[in-house]
């Protein structure tokens, strides 16, 4: 054996070299030392049954021990389970909250009250107007918001989040609510709306901006996917009937300036991607109903509500403590 072969660096990774063929520092030929190579993958730091030490010759995988892959040298990277270096995930800002309408007592205030997230208000519309919450009004629906406009023409009831939300390219807005129109309520000129509006009701007008679900017996028997940027308007029939009995549906909107997706009961029923979306518009989240030019005092019920805001750019994470 040449002198160059009698070195501690002579082991070739992934090979099995008999201990007798090596001379270790301070040792004698035929005595295994720390540079001996084992074919036993279970012996990473100790001598194996073959009196050798295993030296991995390949990168580690999900099923086999091995070597770490090349490092990127970037202090902000991490080594993933795929044995590759990756940049840390860019932080984004999410905001999530909900309202189950259990904290505003039943009331009929002309000036309004507050639930967890919403300012709730009705016009003094004669007999029967109200806006309030019930902790146990309908079986299976603890926490109910009821909005009824009263029996005076052009009256309303509404709930809206006081802070405005901008529909712009930096944000994806997701809102959903569980809603029902009570038995016999779907008639006459009454309007029902859930979504975003630059004015929180109480009526649909041609000068405002809207993204939401809309129903009016005069327009048809179904719920409509409604978008309006002042003169540009789309009112698309979802095919989902309002019904003549108290039928609960979960309505969900996913909103960006270029696309609005409308879901009913977790099924995508409509999309809109045209100029009727009011981009760069500051809006309120709102539920409202009114009796138009009539005197029908029909109710809109809301069981619960969720909101999720996702920023596109890097920022910090936000979540309420409620």
Question: Layout of SSEs?
Answer:
Elements: E1 77-79, E2 85-87, E3 92-99, E4 113-114, E5 119-122, E6 130-134, E7 144-148, E8 156-160, E9 165-167, E10 171-181, E11 191-197, E12 209-216, E13 222-229, E14 232-241, E15 249-255, E16 260-264, E17 267-272, E18 281-290, E19 300-314
Antiparallel strand pairs: 1-2, 3-19, 4-5, 5-8, 6-7, 7-19, 8-18, 9-18, 10-15, 10-19, 11-12, 11-18, 12-13, 13-14, 15-16, 16-17
Structural description of this entry:
The chain has a domain at 93-314: Jelly Rolls (Sandwich), CATH 2.60.120. It contains no helices and 19 strands. The protein has strands at residues 77-79, 85-87, 92-99, 113-114, 119-122, 130-134, 144-148, 156-160, 165-167, 171-181, 191-197, 209-216, 222-229, 232-241, 249-255, 260-264, 267-272, 281-290, 300-314. The termini are far apart. Residues 1-11, 15-33 and 316-322 have low confidence and may be disordered.
